[in-house]
Amino acid sequence: MVSLAKAWTVTFYGALALMVAIGIWDVFFGYEENKCSMSYMFEYPEYQKISLPHKLTRQYPAYELYLYGEGSYAQENKNLLLSGIPVLFLPGNAGSYKQVRSLGSIALRKAEDIDFKYHFDFFSVNFNEELVALYGGSLKKQTKFVHECIKIILKLYEINTLAIYT
User: Fold this and answer.
1) 3-state SS assignment for residue 133
2) Residues 101, 68: contact at Cβ < 8 Å?
3) Taking Cα atoms as reference points, which of 99, 119, 121, 101 lies closest to residue 110?
4) Tens of pLDDT, residues 107-162
5) pLDDT above 90 coverage of the chain, percent
6) What is the CA radius of gyration of the chain?
7) For 99, which DSSP code?
8) Cα–Cα 20 to 30 A to 127, which of 16, 47, 79, 147?
9) Are 105 and 95 a contacting pair, CB within 8 Å?
């Protein structure tokens, strides 16, 4: 009986030592090269704040809406005469509105490759890096703000469409 218990103890500690050895080997020798490529900006990023109605800024004082651009593209869009396809970037829990940079920069380079036949206008919402993962009340508030932002973005394109056709 004693020898059977001793055999199980030796087997248990032997298996444990083997797993620790495999784990140490994996940490030092079992890595793979990172195959992800970094996105780079070619020009200085600019986040143009979109003016919101006074009622909306009073109701949501911590939230803002921005238009992302780089270099000459950002300068051309200072007057908000937009002709691209609108994209609204929403940062996640505690995320920053500036995270739109990587998507916006790559989309701008791709649009340049096809001579701006199609391009995207990236808008981003600043939720002030609010923590919403654990509280639904903040998420509901953000949802209502995003709904108002979509209306504002669509109005920007209505104004531009009227200006082009008149």
Assistant:
1) coil
2) yes
3) 119
4) 888 887 787 778 899 999 999 999 888 888 888 999 999 999 999 999 988 866 55
5) 43
6) 26
7) G
8) 79
9) no
